[in-house]
Amino acid sequence: MTKPVNPAKTTTPQTNAVAVAETALGKPQSSPSAGNGGVETGTAETCPANVRSQAIKTTALKTQAMPTEQSQTSPTEASPSSRSLQRKEEILQALAAMLEQSPGQRITTAALAQKVGVSEPALYRHFPSKARMFEGLIEFIETTLLGKIDSIIQQHKSAETRLKLIVQLVLGFAERNPGMCRILTGDALHGEQERLRERVQQLLDKLEQQLRWCLRERKLREGKGVSDEAALANALLAYCEGKIQQFVRSGFTLHPTDHMDAQWQLMRLAFH
């Protein structure tokens, strides 16, 4: 097993792209702790090194083609690179909005160009393919969730509190970003490149690994364990995926956080 590293040393990129993305797409908020865990502070805990090394490599809503020098641009200047970055953000925000407003429908580049107010060839000047646009949204989801999970791990010592807050985080993010739920469930990826589904699966695997690590760390820190940490972590992720799938299938009327507190009381029995 890869040696854990301290998550306190892992920082989530914070750039103008993050601010714009969270304003337009909904910034996840940490839910208040519940149960017997409470809000705790203390020394940051370790988390899986292979998750940390793969996560948060890019800023939110930032693809590999996005410039990294935008912070050096003078506020009074509108350099070509900053204009390009702004346009990319607008394209991704429009794509997320269309996914929400057109449930069950496939998004075409022609419709997306019309939504943004540019020509279709102009889209491809910023993204080489529609797949890269979807990848930009997937990167935003990953960066946001894993960054918030880092904060939860740093602020709370109780494993049960951590697990509940992580589940609340995932469901709350989904509820505030309906269009992105269609990506997480694969609903928006029909007819798209297979690598997009693989990319989503990689993200879900990282979330499950975080849940599994919290359970294993609980055994070391608190002397409490379950018979099968992997099975319980998978069950918690399956719960999140099921609630998100229900949200999409209902046309975004059945909210992921509905009945969460009552359902958690049933799930927490597995911890004891």
Describe this structure in words.
This protein is mostly helical and 272 residues long. It has a single domain (7-271), classed as Tetracycline Repressor, domain 2 (Orthogonal Bundle). The protein contains eleven helices and no strands. It has helices at residues 16-25, 49-54, 80-101, 109-116, 120-126, 130-155, 159-176, 178-184, 194-222, 229-249, 260-267. Helix 3 (80-101) packs across helix 6, helix 6 (130-155) runs antiparallel to helix 7 and helix 8 (178-184) packs across helix 10 (229-249). The longest helix has 29 residues, at 194-222. The two termini are 26 Å apart.
Sequence-ordered SSE layout with sheet pairings:
Blueprint: H1 16-25, H2 49-54, H3 80-101, H4 109-116, H5 120-126, H6 130-155, H7 159-176, H8 178-184, H9 194-222, H10 229-249, H11 260-267
Helix pairs in contact: 1-3, 3-4, 3-6, 3-8, 6-7, 6-9, 7-9, 7-10, 8-10, 9-10
What is the CATH superfamily? Answer: Tetracycline Repressor, domain 2
H/E order of the elements? HHHHHHHHHHH
| Share in β-strands | under 5%
CATH topology: Tetracycline Repressor, domain 2
CATH class: Mainly Alpha
The number of distinct β-strands equals 0
Low-confidence stretches: 1-46, 49-76
Mean pLDDT: 78
Which CATH-level-2 architecture?
Answer: Orthogonal Bundle
The N- to C-terminal Cα distance equals 26 Å
Report a brief summary of the structure.
By secondary structure, this protein is mainly alpha-helical.
